Amino acid sequence: MQGFLKDTAEDLLVKYPDLKEVTVILPNRRAGLFFTKYLGQLISQPMWMPAVRTIEDLFYDLAGQRPTDQLSLIFELYKIYKELQPDPEPFDRFYYWGEMILKDFNDIDQFLVDHRKLYSLLSDIKSIESDLSFLTNSQVELIKQFWKSFEREGRGHQDKFLRFWQLLTSLYDRFQEELNVLGYAYSGKLYRKVAEQLDKLERPSKQFVFVGFNAFTGTEEKLVKHFTAKFGAKIYWDLDAYYTKSPQQEAGLFFRDYQKDKILGPTFPKELPENISTKPAKIKVYVTPLKVNQANLIGTILDEVLPGEHLEETVVILPEEQLLFPVMHQLPSHIDRVNVTMGYPVRNAPVYAFLESLLDLQRYVKVENSKVYFYHQVVKDLLSSTYLKIGNEVFVKQFLERIQKQNQIYISQEDLAAGGAFYALVFQRLVPEQLFDYLESLMISLANQLKEDTLQGSYLYQCHKQLVRLKEIFQSQTEIDFNLEFFIRLFRQIFKEVRLPFEGEPLAGLQVMGVLESRNLDFKRVIIANMNEGSFPPSSALNSLVPFNLRRAFGLPVQEQNDAIYAYTFYRLLHRAEEVHMVYATAADQGKVGEKSRYIQQMMAEMPIEIEEEVVFVPVDLQQPKEISIAKTPAISALLEKYVVQEDGKSLTAFSPSAFSVWLDCKLKFYFQYLANIKEKEKVEEEVSASVFGNLAHYSLEFLYKGFMERKQRRVVEKGDFDQLSKYIFPSIEKAIRDFYHLEVGADTKLTGQMAIVRDVLQKYITALLDLDKAGAPFELVSLEKDVRYQAEVPVEVSGRKYEIAIRGIIDRVDKQDGVVRLIDYKSGKDQKDFPSVTSLFDRDDPKRNKAAMQTLIYGMLYQEKFPENSLPLKPAIYNLKEIFSNDFNPYLQLKEGRGKVEEIDDYRNYQEEFEQGLKGLLQEIFDDEVPFGQTEDWEKCKYCPYNKICGR
Fold it and tell me: Buried b vs exposed e over 742-765: b needs ≥16 C-beta within 10 Å?
């Protein structure tokens, strides 16, 4: 296709047959590549090509110098700042302001501003703003309500605030002197140096031609005018009458100003091109609900590119780089060549996330008894990365399971180093001075691992290159101290600017580029993503210490100029395009509203063509989630067989009391938990939950009384035994913690934080419980926890088939006291001990169904089954640890219907027939093929259910 650069190349060939005598200056290198390509297509015989350069290269060549990197400049700026400011900020706090000051200095020089006048006015304005003497008392009070923080800082802070603005002039002057001594420079300084010495330039031996410019800085404009007026330089403007002639069009802002200039004005063509209005493109706008949907849509649009078409005539413009990889993944298979012009931020790469985690690791280091420990969350993040899994996946898997099993909040360096040399390298405790060597050695080690992964290796190379440069700068700035937090902030600040340049053939294939890279290039098919207000044009304001009014008054760029530049880059894409596809999303993203770009609004209102708009829907089901009901097919019913006692008198497993509670709560939850065996996701708990506290209490009491029986070789506990028993409370708790967290026998259980508090609370609870036991002594311990296997086989008949169903339970404690067998269940909460009737225990619609009472009554059934000859009363009891300090503590179950008489359950056997009948009915329901595994109708039960994501509730 015929575009601006090709037209320019043709014209140059006509006017300057000897091209070696011509120097072509373009806005960027990409335009230079395409310009050279078109020249090569137009010439028919060997000849010297013209010199093709960017305006940036021209300035640096004339200055005889190139800019210094920004970090070195900010270091030098800080040194001057420390000299001028009596109480300077530390470097890490200054860095952000240093960037802003340096940018302002660059603008001042690029636009040839008198810095003394500018900063003098700025200082005066700030003095007026901080002076409240001309206000009335009521006005001062009103202002202070909105200025509390400033008022609290006191006059000293105000003085420091004013001194900062007053020293900017001196800071600029001293900074220039220091840079001259060191031989350093920033780009604006070099541009100003050239612009101020243009009169000393000798006439160049070649003809200069400036091609495709839109907005000059002050120094660029001065140079171009000088070359035009003094040396006869030519200018080719890349513009269109549509926006240049119309004062309402911001895209033509600079062109209209240049047309009025006595030097630049005559360089404009007499008749401006009218491509946009006379050869309008076919324009279509697409609306998608989500940002990521745009990638799929762009892939669909590119499907229209026919196999024989020139791919380089199609461009995808990405105003934001986050869409780059999604778009690349959605490219049609027949598009086999792609040229990516834009760089991809390293901060979005996995390697960078790994490096950040390494720095976070150093923030959460704990040292105890000369041993180094790392915080579990960062350790788990690192172990889960592919870089640590490579070559030692078994170790990582086992280690992560161990962290979970033992609930380790902090993990020792020694344990981690067992993974191998790379693990020993990663998990170290460092001082700030070691960070550079640490990260560099890690990057080298990673590079050896990633030899086969070219993309990751490229990311790593860019990171390493930046790190080495950072290290060199810090080593040359020995007087600046830095701590870990400062290093991390600076690391993030520096690396967020690092981009991975993609390699490819720039002149062939589908073109994918950012907005500014498209200048001077023309395409037949244009696809623009992120056509949202805030993305294209971008909404970011200018970061500057100089307020808007002063910037405008002194000719410094303001948002208006930025808007004009972006408007021009948009409209110039329409110069030669035959079809334009613009995509925007309606969903808000990262604080940006889902609103179509003003450019789309302008085109629809102003362009005399029909613009088609298509809403691309993503199917969404707005109905309530369908009820899930799993029918008992033969395969599913077979899963229940594991609870059936077989001919050999054994079963694979048995129902627990909690399984019946789950069935009554939700049949589907029962299926997930007991038949499908879908386990809850475990996690390391830094806070001790009620369930963990209860388990520790159970273990402690079990070990306490088991230890007693082993020492005394008897089961009867007398009143005189409790003095000695109390001495074993603490060791029993320690043993419980080791057992619960799967620690070895000799493992150190030194506790800190919340766990230490829990240990102390447990000690108080157990002491109080021993006081209760002492009051009821003597008693005989029959069993503790897993001492005795309590199991019953309940006969049921379902659909003509007879079953023996296994039920098993662990009774926390069984003892005999005063001729009564007590079945004791320890609880860490405040479970109710009263219930209206045995029938209510099996009523799933009863919101107050007493689960704890049902559980202890099942213990009665299990005990009687275990000891059928028993003739003693069976008395279920619930020991709520939170109630044992009450003077009227009563652990026994009670029948209490309404306000009627309260009846204590003195013997389970009195209720045995009714209870076991209810239990049989429950089992018949579970095994009935006609009763599916359905969801509960009480959605309140779904709130904390671990399976609610599966159900969609």
Answer: ebeeeeeeeeeeebeebbeebbeb
For 656-688, the pLDDT digits (tens) are 999 999 999 999 999 999 999 888 776 666 667
Which amino acid is it at 209?
V
If DSSP codes are grouped into helix, strand and coil, which group holds residue 131?
Answer: coil
Contact 462, 456 (CB under 8 A): no
Element (H, E) at 86: none
Please state at what angle helix 598-606 crosses helix 559-572, rounded to 10 degrees: 60
Contact 399, 420 (CB under 8 A): no
Q: CA 382 → CA 42, 230, 346, 386, 838, distances in Å?
A: 57, 64, 18, 9, 54
Identify whether the C-beta of residue 495 lies closer than 8 Å to the C-beta of residue 346.
yes
The answer to whether 611 and 649 are in contact (CB under 8 A) is: no
Name the CA radius of gyration of the chain, rounded.
40
- DSSP conformational letter for 518: G
CA–CA separation, 66 and 68 (whole Å): 7
* Strand duo 801-817 + 820-827: pairing: antiparallel
Question: Could you give the CA distance from residue 901 to residue 895 in angstroms, rounded to a whole number?
Answer: 8
| Residue spans of alpha helices (H) in 713-826 | 722-726, 729-740, 753-776
Encode pLDDT of 40-58 as tens digits. 999 888 889 999 999 999 9
Which structure tokens are listed for 505?
């053939």
H or E segment and range at residue 827:
strand 820-827
In degrees and rounded to multiples of 5, residue 902 shows phi and psi of: -90, 130
Which residues, in sequence order, are bridge partners of residue 500? 344
Report how far residue 585's alpha carbon sits from residue 576's, in angstroms, rounded to the nearest whole number: 26
Q: Is the pTM of this model over 0.85?
A: no
Q: Are the C-beta atoms of 526 and 573 separated by less than 8 Å?
A: yes
Angle at 104 between CA 99 and CA 109, to 5 degrees: 125
**Nearest-angstrom CA–CA distance, 79 and 71:** 13
Indicate the pLDDT class of residue 159, thresholds 50, 70 and 90. Answer: low
**What count of other Cβ atoms lies within 10 Å of the Cβ of residue 425?**
13
Tokens of 748: 């150190």
Q: 237 with 519: CB under 8 angstroms?
A: no
Q: Which two tokens stand for residue 31?
A: 């335009």
d(CA 234, CA 209): 5
Cross-strand pairs, 794: 805
Rounded CA-CA distance 334/302 in Å is 10
Q: Which of 438, 433, 443 is nearest to 361 (CA)?
A: 438
What is the rounded average pLDDT of the residues 360-375?
Answer: 87
Q: Is 508 exposed, middle or buried (0-12, 13-18, 19+ CB in 10 A)?
A: middle
Helix (H, G, I), strand (E, B) or coil at 781: strand
Report the SS3 class of residue 615: strand
Over residues 564-588, the pLDDT tens digits come to 999 999 999 999 999 999 999 988 7
Read out DSSP for 625-657? PPPPEE---HHHHHHGGGGB--TTS--S--B-H
How many other β-carbons are positioned within 10 Å of the β-carbon of residue 326? 18
Residue 660 has which token pair?
């019946």
Q: How many CA atoms lie within 13 A of 273 on its CB side?
A: 16
Q: What is the pLDDT of residue 453?
A: 77
How far is 319 from 280, CA to CA, in rounded Å? Answer: 23
What integer pLDDT is reported at residue 132 of this predicted model? Answer: 52
Judged by DSSP in three states, 494 sits in helix
Instruction: Say how far apart CA 785 and CA 783 lie, in whole Å.
Output: 7
Between the alpha carbon of residue 373 and those of residues 105, 378, 428, 511, 581, the distances in Å are: 47, 12, 9, 51, 56
Q: What is the 3-state secondary structure (H, E, C) of 367-384?
A: EECCEEEEEHHHHHHHHC
Distance CA 605, CA 598 (A): 10
Residue 316 · residue 511 · CB < 8 Å: yes
Q: Pairing relation of β-strands 629-630 and 933-934?
A: antiparallel
Task: Specify the residue for token string 């931020």.
Answer: 345
